[in-house]
């Protein structure tokens, strides 16, 4: 397979067209240098438009995951389905996942892909008995299947499952819950008012669960948006999806604050993700937040979040109580003051305003982010030793 | 994708069907719907809140929420249905948050799938752990009764089980349009029960003299105690 021939230029008017064309050239240049310039590829997966086409994704995604395309796992044997204890659950979930396939695809073709989807999932599980299937995993795998095809998807998904998705695939979801605990501290850093409102509503974080564990594949109906986000997440730290989740909540600040302050209203609002989000802007913001508030700084707050949750759950009549009357509010407030004091001395970037983000030059950001994605690998070890490092070469 | 929009709009649908927003102080009945994967929890809640069967549903990840405003004996009441993921790993560490302050529990099994019936004791046990010392109403719903030739769970077996657990049993189909009223009746019966049972959350005193159990409900039902 030759990597030297660029695909036909995308036909679009003027500026964006030439920008795109230049980016395509840059990507192929990074691909074709020997060895491939993975840092450059990572930056381009993050920067505006991501990797642009599925043809490019077929070539770049393996590089981002450090997967050798000439050494793919063998096709599964016939016994695969019989031996699998997950088969029934996978079958149920894949059969119901019609929305993940392009509208208008003939049934026969879709059914063939669904069979392949089942095989990929079962094969990865079979080869990695430490991994456990979860509902939503199929939403991630289908994205890879549709972009790179069955064989390569198996290799990419296997790597992803033992790295980025590793925590979701534990025997229990405790680690997944722990990652969700990063959500509120991130929101608190940027918008304490929104944070406090959500805490008073006791909305929890489950509204973001499907976002996190499917990398938004379960909730976005336009496949182009899904693959754009996958470019971004594949190039970044495994916790980036939770930053992106926070950015979506922050973006919807006004809607949230206009909600009735109760669990049901806020959960309902947030779990219905708008389909017309300004993805490029939000990606920039997520990257920016990651640089400002890396996971290592949030780890303590996330742990505290867990403690609070336990404390709060013993308090029964929350619907009757106002925020001021709740015993845990005092604790929470004290903790936050402590944290904020430290943050303030550390950075003038604390509590940035929204419009500041928009003004950030995309290139400047992505350079910083590319560096950040590498720099924070160490902090990943602090909170989850399971992430291995070869994924960031 | 249309279906997604449809599913998501069930909340709005329910509001518009009763004309505008409910009054600010209307009572809320929070009902959690649990059971194995693929027994039809999403379809049942959708049927009640949107009035019809969704053409396509996907696996529920985490917890979904649907709501409908109803009027019972002249009082506006919001019925909130919390639709939960069926896969065991979700319920172990994710769903507990949503057991808090629930007023009723609906256990669902698939009448064409014996395994989903056999899972009920563990669901019931888990529910007990989350709702310690609580005597909230619980009901048992066998779904997919329209698939007559595929039934694996006979009514008498289910009824016996329901009796030992002191739960009323309903067999229904979220899909069969003839059963539309039936799904409606199940949740409305529950709502009546809740309304008459005790004051819930907000200030209004309950109408304790009115207990509306619909005697025509079929095919199976036992007392509430």
Automatic annotation (TrEMBL), chain A:
<protein>
    <recommendedName>
        <fullName>TBC1 domain family member 20</fullName>
    </recommendedName>
</protein>
<feature type="region of interest" description="Disordered">
    <location>
        <begin position="1"/>
        <end position="22"/>
    </location>
</feature>
<dbReference type="Pfam" id="PF00566">
    <property type="entry name" value="RabGAP-TBC"/>
</dbReference>
<dbReference type="GO" id="GO:0005096">
    <property type="term" value="F:GTPase activator activity"/>
</dbReference>
<keyword id="KW-0343">GTPase activation</keyword>
<feature type="compositionally biased region" description="Pro residues">
    <location>
        <begin position="1"/>
        <end position="10"/>
    </location>
</feature>
<feature type="transmembrane region" description="Helical">
    <location>
        <begin position="357"/>
        <end position="377"/>
    </location>
</feature>
<keyword id="KW-1133">Transmembrane helix</keyword>
<feature type="transmembrane region" description="Helical">
    <location>
        <begin position="232"/>
        <end position="251"/>
    </location>
</feature>
<dbReference type="GO" id="GO:0006888">
    <property type="term" value="P:endoplasmic reticulum to Golgi vesicle-mediated transport"/>
</dbReference>
<dbReference type="GO" id="GO:0005789">
    <property type="term" value="C:endoplasmic reticulum membrane"/>
</dbReference>
<keyword id="KW-0472">Membrane</keyword>
<dbReference type="InterPro" id="IPR000195">
    <property type="entry name" value="Rab-GAP-TBC_dom"/>
</dbReference>
<keyword id="KW-0812">Transmembrane</keyword>
<dbReference type="GO" id="GO:0016050">
    <property type="term" value="P:vesicle organization"/>
</dbReference>
<dbReference type="GO" id="GO:0007030">
    <property type="term" value="P:Golgi organization"/>
</dbReference>
<dbReference type="InterPro" id="IPR035969">
    <property type="entry name" value="Rab-GAP_TBC_sf"/>
</dbReference>
<dbReference type="InterPro" id="IPR045913">
    <property type="entry name" value="TBC20/Gyp8-like"/>
</dbReference>
<feature type="domain" description="Rab-GAP TBC">
    <location>
        <begin position="51"/>
        <end position="237"/>
    </location>
</feature>
TrEMBL record, chain B:
<dbReference type="GO" id="GO:0005794">
    <property type="term" value="C:Golgi apparatus"/>
</dbReference>
<keyword id="KW-0636">Prenylation</keyword>
<keyword id="KW-0488">Methylation</keyword>
<dbReference type="InterPro" id="IPR005225">
    <property type="entry name" value="Small_GTP-bd"/>
</dbReference>
<dbReference type="GO" id="GO:0003925">
    <property type="term" value="F:G protein activity"/>
</dbReference>
<dbReference type="Pfam" id="PF00071">
    <property type="entry name" value="Ras"/>
</dbReference>
<keyword id="KW-0547">Nucleotide-binding</keyword>
<dbReference type="GO" id="GO:0005525">
    <property type="term" value="F:GTP binding"/>
</dbReference>
<dbReference type="InterPro" id="IPR041822">
    <property type="entry name" value="Rab33A/B"/>
</dbReference>
<dbReference type="GO" id="GO:0032482">
    <property type="term" value="P:Rab protein signal transduction"/>
</dbReference>
<protein>
    <recommendedName>
        <fullName>small monomeric GTPase</fullName>
        <ecNumber>3.6.5.2</ecNumber>
    </recommendedName>
</protein>
<keyword id="KW-0472">Membrane</keyword>
<keyword id="KW-0378">Hydrolase</keyword>
<dbReference type="InterPro" id="IPR027417">
    <property type="entry name" value="P-loop_NTPase"/>
</dbReference>
<keyword id="KW-0449">Lipoprotein</keyword>
<comment type="similarity">
    <text>Belongs to the small GTPase superfamily. Rab family.</text>
</comment>
<keyword id="KW-0342">GTP-binding</keyword>
<dbReference type="InterPro" id="IPR001806">
    <property type="entry name" value="Small_GTPase"/>
</dbReference>
